[in-house]
Amino acid sequence: MKFVLFSLLMNVPNAITGETLTTQQKFQNIIAQAVLAEELGFEAYGVGERHGTPFLSSSPPVILSAIAARTSRIRLLTTVTVLSVLDPVRVAEDYATLDHLSEGRLEMIIGKGNDPRHYPLFGISEDEQWDSLAERYALLKRLWNEENVTWKGKYRTPLDNVTTQPRPFQQPIPIWHGSASSTLSTELAAKYGEPIFSSNSFHPQAKYKALIDHYRERLSYYGHDPKNAIVGSGASSLYLANTPEEAIKRFRPYYNAFHATDAAQHNQSPFKDLEDNIENGPILVGNAEQVIEKILNYHRAYGNQVLCISVDGLNEAEQHEQLHRFVNDVMPVLRKEIPSSLWESKPKILHVNLLSRGV
Q1: Which of 250, 253, 321, 268 shows the shortest CA–CA distance to 12?
Q2: Spatial distance between the Cα atoms of 46 and 8, rounded to a whole number of angstroms
Q3: Which residues have C-beta within 8 Å of that of residue 342, sequence separation ≥ 6?
Q4: Which CA distances in Å does 250 have to 5, 8, 235?
Q5: What distance separates the 2 farthest-apart alpha carbons in the chain?
Q6: What single string gives the DSSP state of each residue in 191-251?
Q7: CB-side neighbour CA atoms (13 Å) of 332
Q8: Using CA atoms in the order 140, 146, 150, 154, what is the torsion angle rounded to 10 degrees?
Q9: Helix, coil or strand: residue 286
Q10: Residues 6+ apart with CB under 8 A from 303
Q11: How far apart are CA 128 and CA 115, in angstroms?
């Protein structure tokens, strides 16, 4: 199994001390966190995209460029790029630039996002999100794969003989599809024969498993071998301690603080409390043995080769403690139990044959 550390740059008062970082301090914290992730052996670092409090992650390509300048090996993911509201020309330019600055370490995860506040900011309605995502992604693919693009659609002005600059460093830039709530996202991924990344953050396992199963079924429909499916998975928050009781006691204030935010309320968690989430949800809170067994349980359901974790909301000392615990006590077992060749060479993209389906 391969491992991603990610952040949405959630900047809330610390649940224990009440301290709030300045915006500048939070940005520096994230850059330092990414540097530490590389030092500790994580394969990738991800930055999500949000457009409203308490998140500071409105510009992932800018943040990831700063991280690229301070690192040399770790892959750089967008978790996710909210392509449903973005201009594909701007996305093509910004992320191709990042691809060069990172010397080909970029991997993009696209999605429609799960925060409805971004729709009025960018001039589309929530009802249009899926059609907008599909159209914008088709254009982005053309802009990266072709020169002299002429195009006409609904969600931006027409293009006439356009070649975006710079051209991507990687040919192609690896693209994943974020999967959280609808078969429309897994359908789009299967259509292009590209990997999916399950958010696996807010709901019971069965909901996300159904989406992953749908993805594999539709891969077969579009002529791809489901055995070659590449799946990543999130895991909500991480908190490790020597005993389950200690982990719950120490993490509870952070859990309660996050679930009081407007962003968390929008997701409408079905879990009544922290204990219910530990028992029936994706959160990774407990001792190392418990966390390992939960990750293995989810792997049996999803078949994921990648696990994405976060330590958002913790103070810097606890972030370091949790990452060191995870690397020392959890990661070696999972690497042994779930071998993966992903990212050991150029990332694997499923062969695409859309012409046979009239796409």
Answers
A1: 253
A2: 9
A3: 2, 230, 305, 306, 348
A4: 21, 22, 19
A5: 63
A6: HHT--EEE--SSS-HHHHHHHHHHHHHHHHHTT--GGG--EEE---BEEE-SSHHHHHHHH
A7: 6
A8: -10
A9: strand
A10: 212, 229, 231
A11: 14
Going by C-alpha positions, the residue among 115, 117, 124, 349 that lies closest to residue 228 is: 349
Q: How many residues does the chain have?
A: 359
pLDDT of residue 266: 65
The contacts of residue 186 (CB under 8 Å, 6+ apart) are: 177, 179, 196, 211, 212, 214, 215, 218
The confidence score (pLDDT) of residue 92 equals 98
CA-CA distance, 108 to 94, in Å (whole number)? 12
Bridge-partner residues for 6, per DSSP? Answer: 46
- DSSP single-letter state for residue 10: B
The structural domains of the chain, ordered by start, are 2-235+300-357 (3.20.20.30)
- CA separation (Å) from 236 to 5, 311, 338? 11, 9, 20
Mean pLDDT of the chain: 93
> For residue 173, what are the contacts with CB-CB under 8 A and spacing of at least 6?
95, 96, 99, 106, 107, 108, 144
pLDDT confidence tier of residue 257, bands split at 50, 70 and 90 = confident
Structure tokens that stand for 261 in this block: 């935010």
Contacts of 109 (CB under 8 A, 6+ apart): 46, 77, 78, 79, 80, 81, 175, 176, 177, 178, 197
For residue 346, pLDDT beyond 80: no
What average pLDDT does this structure show over 35-48?
Answer: 98
352 in Cβ contact with 317 (< 8 Å): no
Please say whether the beta carbons of 77 and 60 come within 8 A. no
For the chain, how far is it from start to end, CA to CA, in angstroms?
Answer: 34
Structure tokens at 100: 């060069």
If one counts every other C-beta atom within 10 angstroms of the C-beta of residue 172, the result is: 12
97-134 in b/e form (b: 16+ CB < 10 A) is bbbbbbebbbbbbbbbbbbeebbeeeebeeebbbebbb
For 160-198, write each residue's pLDDT tens digit.
Answer: 999 999 999 999 999 999 999 999 999 999 999 999 999
